[in-house]
Write a structure and sequence with these properties.
It is globular and about 55 Å long. A hairpin with a 6-residue loop joins strand 3 and strand 4. Helix 1 packs across helix 4 and helix 3 packs across helix 4. The protein is α/β, with parallel strands linked by helices and 142 residues long. 29% of the residues lie in helices and 18% in strands. The chain has a 4-stranded parallel sheet with strand order 5-2-1-6, covered by helices on one side. Strands 3-4 form a two-stranded antiparallel ribbon. The chain has 5 helices and 6 strands, in the order E-H-E-H-E-E-H-H-H-E-E. The longest helix has 13 residues. The protein has one domain: Ribosomal Protein L13p, Chain: A (Alpha-Beta Complex), CATH 3.90.1180.
C-alpha cells in the first residue's frame, strides 16, 4: 500500500475565522499553527503547503495565564553592541496586539521558506471587523 503525497497545485485552501476573545495565547497559537500547516487535513504532507488560511479577530482580548501580563518580555536586537531592547507584553497589547499572536504562531512553524509561506496565510486584526468577507471564512470550532 502506498502513502499519499499531496502535489503542489492540488490543495484548495479553506478560510477559517477564529475569535481570540477569552482564549489562552499558547493554546490558541497551537490551533492556528496546525491549521496553517494543514495538520488537520487527511492529505497532510510535511514538505508541501497543504494548510488553510486563518483570520484571527479580537487579538487585543487574548488571555495569558499566570503573571505573564507583567513579566513577559520580547527581545529585539539590532546587531550593534548594547542595542538590545526589551518590550513588555502589556506595551504590545496597547500598541500592536497583532504581534502577540503572530510571534507565538511563528515560533510553532518551520524555520524555512515553507514556514514563511504558511505565515503569510495568517491575517490578524485587533478588532472584530475584517476585510475578508469575499473568501467566505468559516468559524473554526475545536
Amino acid at each position: 500500500m502506498k502513502s499519499y503525497l499531496a502535489k503542489q497545485g492540488e490543495i484548495e485552501p479553506k478560510w477559517y475565522v477564529i475569535d481570540a476573545e477569552g482564549q489562552v495565547l499558547g493554546r490558541l497559537a497551537v490551533k492556528i499553527a496546525n491549521i496553517l500547516r494543514g495538520r488537520l487535513r487527511p492529505t497532510y504532507t510535511p514538505h508541501i503547503d497543504t494548510g488553510d488560511c486563518v483570520v484571527v479577530l479580537n487579538a487585543n482580548k487574548v488571555v495569558v495565564t499566570g503573571r505573564k501580563e507583567e513579566q513577559k518580555k520580547y527581545m529585539f536586537y539590532s546587531g550593534y553592541f548594547g542595542n538590545e531592547k526589551y518590550v513588555g507584553l502589556k506595551d504590545f497589547r496597547k500598541k500592536r496586539p497583532e504581534f502577540i499572536i503572530e510571534h507565538a504562531v511563528k515560533g510553532m512553524l518551520p524555520r524555512n521558506r515553507l514556514g514563511s509561506a504558511q505565515l503569510k496565510k495568517l491575517k490578524i486584526y485587533a478588532g472584530s471587523e475584517h476585510p475578508h468577507e469575499a473568501q467566505n471564512p468559516v468559524p473554526y470550532t475545536a
